[in-house]
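chain below, 684 aa
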Amino acid sequence: MKKLLFEIGTEELPANYMPNILKDLKALALKKLQDARVPFADVTVLGTPRRLAVLVSGVQETQADSTEEYKGPAVNIAFKDGEPTKAAQGFARGKGVDVKDLVVKDNYIYAVKHIQGRATAELLPHVLQEILTNIPFPNHMRWADFDFRFLRPIHWLVALFGREIVPVSITDIQSDRYTMGHRFLSNKKIEIPVADDYEKILEENFVIADQDKRREMIRQQITELAREEGGEIEIAADLLEEVNYLVEYPTPLCGKFEEKYLALPEAAIITPMRDHQRYFPVRGKDGKLLNKFIAVRNGGKAFLENVTHGNERVLRARLSDAEFFFNEDRKQKLEAYEEKIKTVVFQEGLGNMYDKSQRLEKLVEMIHFGQQSRLPLADLKRAAKLSKCDLVTGMVTEFTELQGVMGREYARLDGEKADVCEGIFEQYLPRFAGDILPKTEIGRILSIADKVDNIVATFSRGKAPTGSQDPFALRRQALGIINILLDSQKHMDMAKVVGASILLLKVPMEEVKELATQIIEFIRLRFRNLLLEQKIRYDVIDAVLADERNNDLYDLYLRAQALNEYVAGDKAADMIQAATRVNNLSSKAETVLPVNESLFKVEAEKALYAVVRKLDTDMIPLTVRCDYAGALNILSELNAPVNKFFDDVMVMDKDEDVKNNRLSLLCLVKDMVNCVGDLSKLVM
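prediction:
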């Protein structure tokens, strides 16, 4: 067994792409090795700003022998009077076997070929070439006059199987055993004698190739340095991940800035520090921000003081800008910016941000009315009125990441109510996957209204997401609405909210119905995907979503959870079988009439109707309080009377009145057994 190394040396790769690239690279390497039937133990992928590497351990030097079986014509066609026909001879010739070696099985003839495994070294050039040319990237580029495209220009290739070089080439680059060390600390060609020594040799040349090891080094270094400086480091996972792919050899440094800047709102300090400069904030033991930051240098400790001073100078300029914009913004109240947002276009043909805030005021009022919320309506409308005002402040114009954040801060300084201030910030939540969700009632309603307005407006312009294209992030916003509703356990009819938003946008009446249908289906599809991610069975989802009139997503979620648990129990099989029989026969009812007990002729009819009436009384309070597990639990009482009904009763009686009465009874049963979802959709 040997180790396989394949390193692709490049110009600096975009840090934010790296986690997904490495994930895709590993999946691709596994697939190509398995397709080529190369026996191996494990695949590891490594990445730094200048390289992507695949390490495959336990690679066997020879493929395992294999057997391939090909199905041919039927025996009665292949042989006549015990002799092979032309059909059998042609099949054998085509498969490269002797006709006497054909095998008879299941009344067909088969050609069985035993293939001897090839040397792994013969297979690897093709495998590595396939990996190199098929890595999926978000975008590609060409360089020089080459037709080949890659994420960044390639400068070297290392391909070793043990000690042997595996021949791979692209553009004018030929694979070899020479890599490059750190760009500044060891900028020279470095020989890799054997694949096993790859990481060790790189580390000797100031490159930590393993991203997991490098990440932990950074975490430990910055944590220790912060404590030496008398504080605690504030580590955002996304920032740590980005910094990890900006350096090959991390060294932390601690810089300082003037204490006067601590008078600024925290967000105005942290955003330039973290989002613009990739610095980590430092807090004191009391949790308050210190006038210090920690950065990570791609290099060693030489001249670290100079590097620190340079970083301090850059941050000082940023904070000085923030101080200026903050002071200018505070010369008037947040509400005073309302007139200026008329200059900010919302979407082409759909007015400006002032128009949008006016729609939000009306939409949150409609949601508030539909929710019968105890929340003061005046506070909700106040948050909607101020929601977009910070977009034209100097601070947000300079630091766009602070939209909502500065709105909250300025509203607080103006003396607005706490929930109003928080709602202004929470309208944008969640901003990305895994982000926090709104916690205030104002924030939840305003966030849902804002996202619905965005979705409806974009759909009304014919800009719905297609394929992988979603330039307005509508899928993320739809998922945000769903997560807010589920997290807050809020019942809301999304069809009514979408309809209200369509009316506020003054969509032509002839387009309203089709537009509403498209948007509801779009949201339901996101909801379906979320349920699948939560391991809800696909047939359970089909059963719950069968009722297209129900667009209360939290209610549908509760139904799916209860039904998913129910089908895993021992009561489900009999109930589903009975429900399927009821659904099939009740569909023959042309008109559903009130059940007439005087038309019952068989005891089984009476018994079934009696159980239905009893369960109806028991089930109403359960479904009203959304106790769908309880409702499903008592449905088992229907099993015996339903089965008895089908055993003893001829539903399609010659007497039309009797027949229709029995079908009406089955329609009652159908509504009852499908009180949580359409059980006929379930697969047992």
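The CA atoms of residues 390 and 592 lie 58 Å apart. The mean pLDDT is 93.
thats it, cya
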